[in-house]
Amino acid sequence: MPHLPRSKYLLSFVWILPLLIACSLFGTQPAAAQSQTAVETEILDDSVSANDREKLLARLSDKEVRDIVWNLIQTETKNKKTHSPLATELSQLTDQFRSNFENRVHDLPKLLTLPSILGQAITPPGREKGFLAIVFLAIALFILIGWMGQHLCKKMTRVIYVALTTARNENFPQKLARRFLILLYDLVHPFIFTVTAYLAFIVVYEGYEPNRILMLSIFTGIFSAWALIKTADCIFSPNRSDARLTSLDDADSKMISRHLNVVIIYAIALYFFSGYLSGISSIIDLSSIIEITNSFGGLSIMGLIIFVMWRVRSPIGKLILSGNPPGLARKLLSAIWPAIGTALIVALTAIGIFSALALNVDNVFNSVLKTLLLLLVCTPILAGLIGPLIRQWGLNTSTEDTESIPRAGSRSGIVQLARLILFFTVAMLLGRIWGIDVVEITRSSLGERVSGAVTQVVVTIIIANLIWNLAKRWITSQQNDRDDADSSAGGDPGGQGLTRIETVLPLLRGFLLVTIITVATMISLSSLGVDIGPLIAAASVLGLAIGFGAQTLVADIISGIFFLIDDAFRKGEYIDVSGNTGTVESISVRSMQLRHHNGPIHTVPYSQISTLTNFSRDWVIMKFELRIPFEEDVEKVRKLIKKIGTTLLDDPEHGSEFLEPLKSQGVNRMDDSAFVVRCKFSSKPGKQWALRRIAYAEIQSAFSEAGIKFAPKRVVVEAVSSEIAAAGAAALVSNPESESGKS
C-alpha cells in the first residue's frame, strides 16, 4: 500500500529549501543583468544627451559598467576583424572564462551575508527582529494545517483507496491502468495539503510580497516533491508487490525509491529556493549571489545524481535484464550503464560550465537537467513500458489461455515500431531543448536533401522491419510444438518427422532475413546518394569466383535443393544414408546432421548421398513369431490373436496408432518342437516398437487365461556308448595325418 510521504520528507524539504541554494546552474542572470543590453543601447544612442548618459551610468554598478565596456571591446574587435584566427578566438574564450570564473570566486564571501539578507527580506519594515522566529513558527503551523486537511481527505476517501488497491488477476495494461488511478488518488492529497496551507496563509496575509513569495515557494515545492515521489512509487511500488510494474523484489524497490526520493527533494528544494531568490531580487540586489549559488547548486546536484547511480547500479542492472531473455547488448548495458550515465553527466556539465562562463549562454543548466531527465529517466521508463503494454494488451490473464503466448509474441514488430517512434521523438525533443530548430534546418537546400535521404532510409528500415516481422509471424504460425520424444536419444527410432513446410521453414527464415537486410541496405545506400552499381557488380564477380573456387560447396547446395524438392527426408525422420542411420536433427544449406539412437551424430554433405532410405514415411508393418506346442489347437490360437487385435484397436490410448489390427498369418513353419505362428500389424512410423510390447503383454495374458502355453526351444543331446567312443579314439590315434589333413 503506497503511503503518503513521511513527515521526515516534509521536514527535510522545509529545511533544505532555505539552506540549499540555487536551482539553475551556471548563471541565471538577474533582472538587472537581463536589462543590461537595453541600457547599453540607450547609452550608445546618438539621440540621448550627455546628462542623460551620465545619469544612466550613475545608476549602474561597477560590474555592470565593466560588462558594458567588455561588450564594446568585443564589438570593436569583431568590426576590425570579421574572421578572427582560431587561436585568437580560443584566446578570447579563455579570457572570458577566466574573467567570469574570477568574478565568481571574488563574490564567494557574499554567501556569508545571505542569511542576513534573507532575514532582512522576510522582515517587513518597522517590525522587530523577532519577527523571523514568528515567520518560521507560522510556516510550521501552516504545514500542520495542510497536513490535517489532507489527512481528513484521506479518511473520507478510504473506501476508494481500498477498491483501487484490491489485488486482482491482471495483465500488464490492466495493472498499469490501476496504478495510474492509484496515482491520481495519491496526488489528491498533496493538492489538498497545498490548497489548505495556502488558504490558511491568505487569512493572515498582511500584503508583504516577499513573505507571500516565500510561502508560495514552500507550499508549491512540497506539492511538487510529493507528486514526484508518488509518481516514482507508481512505477517501483516499494510497499505493494502485487501492484508493482517491475520485476524487482521488495528490497531493491525500496532501495531505488529511497535514493530517488533524496534526489527529488534536493532538486526541488534547489529549484524553488532559486525561484524565491529571483522573486525578491527586485527588492534586494542578489545578482552575484544568485550566480554563485546557481553554480554551486548545479554542481552539487550533478554529483548527487552520479552518487545515486552507482549506489543503485545493481537493482537497475537487474531491471535491464528483466523481461524477455536478454541479448548481448542488454547484458553489456546492464554492466556498464553507470559508467555511461556518469560520462553523460560529466560531458553535459562541462558543456554547461563552458557555455555559462565562456559563451555567456543563459539558462544552460535548465537544458542540462532536461536532457538528463529525458535520457536517464523518461526514455528508459517509456521504453520499458512499451513492450509489456503492447504485447499484453487485450490478452486473457488466465493461465489456461494457450493462445496468449503466440498472440503476445506476434506483436514484437509493433513494439519495435513504437520504440523507433519513441527514439525519433526523443531526438526532436533534444533538438528543441538545445534550441535546434529541426524544421528550419530542413528548409535549406542542404537540409532538404539530407532530410529527404534520412526520411527514405527511415521509411525503408520501417518497411523492412514490418516485412520481416510479418514473415517471422507466419513462419512461427506454421511451426508446431509436437513432442519429438520418439526421435530423442534413448527413444524408439523411426518416428514421424515434421511436415515438409516445417522442415523448410528454418532455411526459408534465414534466406528471408539475408534478402531483406541486403535489399534494405542497397535501398538505403541509394537514398544516401551512393552508387550501388559497382557494389552489385563486385558482388556478382565475388559470387562467380566463389562458384569456381568452391565447386564442392556449390554441389552440396544444389544437391540439397533437389533433395528438399523431392521431399526425400524431413526433420525428425529416421533415415539411412549410405550406411549411416539416425534421426534428422538439423538441416543446413550444405549438409544434414543425423542423430543415431545411441547418441552419435553423423554430418552428411548432400553431394555425398548416393542412396537414402527413409523409415518414417506413411506406415510401417511389424511382424513377429510365436512358438506353439504341437498339442495346441492352431485355429484357437488364431481366433484368440484376432480377438486381441480387435481389443487393441478399440483401446482409447493406443487404438488410434494402429493402421491395421493385430492378426495371425497362420503357421509359418514347423521345427522339431513347435509350430511357428507369424503375427503382424500395421502402425504409424515409430509407434511399432511400443505397440509390439503392448501386443506381447496382451497375448501372454490371454494365453494364460485360455490355458495355452508357449513352446520352449529344445536342444537334443544324444549320448553314445563307451565302446563306440573308444573305437573312435583309437582310429584317431592310428591315422593322425588324415585328421590333420582334414583340419
Walkthrough of the structure:
This protein is of the alpha+beta class and 743 residues long. Among the domains are: 156 residues, no CATH class; 126 residues, Alpha-Beta Plaits, CATH 3.30.70. It is 66% helix and 8% strand. It is built from 27 helices and eight strands. The protein has a five-stranded antiparallel β-sheet. Strands 6-8-7 form a three-stranded antiparallel β-sheet, covered by helices on one side. β3 and β4 form a beta hairpin. α9 runs antiparallel to α10, α11 packs antiparallel against α12 and α24 crosses α25. The longest helix has 34 residues. It is elongated. The N terminus and C terminus are likely disordered.
Strand composition percent: 5-15%
Give the tally of β-strands. Answer: 8
Helix count, DSSP H or I runs of 4 or more residues: 27
Radius of gyration based on Cα positions: 44 Å
For the largest sheet, list the strands in their spatial order. 4-3-2-1-5
Mean pLDDT: 75
- Shape assignment: elongated
Distance between the termini: 99 Å
Low-confidence stretches: 1-36, 398-402, 481-490, 738-743
Largest sheet: 5 strands, antiparallel
Work out the oligomeric state of the chains in this entry: single chain
Summarize the amount of helix as a percent range.
55-70%
* Structural class assignment: alpha+beta
Give a concise summary.
The protein is 66% helix and 8% strand. By secondary structure, the chain is an alpha+beta fold.
Task: Write the SSE topology.
Elements: H1 7-19, H2 31-34, H3 36-44, H4 50-59, H5 62-80, H6 86-106, H7 114-122, H8 131-156, H9 158-165, H10 172-204, H11 209-236, H12 250-280, H13 287-311, H14 313-321, H15 328-357, H16 364-391, H17 404-409, H18 412-433, H19 438-443, H20 445-478, H21 500-527, H22 533-549, H23 551-566, E1 574-577, E2 580-587, E3 591-595, E4 601-605, E5 612-614, E6 620-628, H24 634-649, E7 658-670, E8 675-683, H25 688-706, H26 722-734, H27 736-742
Antiparallel strand pairs: 1-2, 1-5, 2-3, 3-4, 6-8, 7-8
Helix pairs in contact: 1-11, 1-12, 8-10, 9-10, 10-11, 11-12, 12-13, 13-15, 14-15, 15-16, 16-18, 18-20, 20-21, 24-25
